[in-house]
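--- STAGE predict ---
source: upstream dedup step, 1 unique chain passed
mode: sequence only
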Amino acid sequence: MNKHTVYFLSSHQQRGMMAEIWANCLRLPDWEIRSAAWKQPIWDNTTIEIMQEILLDFPEIRLTPYNPMEVGGADLVIVLYDSEYEQLDLPPDLPESNLLLWDICNPALRTNDEIEKWVLYQEVCDEIAQNVKKLEPVFRFQYM
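--- STAGE serialize ---
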């Protein structure tokens, strides 16, 4: 049986990376879970440090640029964007079917203060975890 694919897209991959890690925690054997950046992927230690505070072990994540052909073939595409700062920035060629938009703040665009950014990333991490958990029935039953 072929695996289903879910893509978590965010501007520079930080929020998508968090979603990818949380989705991997669900242990979904029938799903290939990926993240990508619709702009230049950027390695951000804050994202990893936040996740390491919560999870001691998580899968290796690679920085991945947006590939419209690959994303277009996914069973589910979830775009994590900040409606106040990234609304007009979304890729124009996103697939119309199987697309979910999550309006989740981008801490890197909200503040330059490192302490505030840390707090925002923690809040974003929690919000993403809750959103991924809410999708668990979809992953487990809708695509069987």
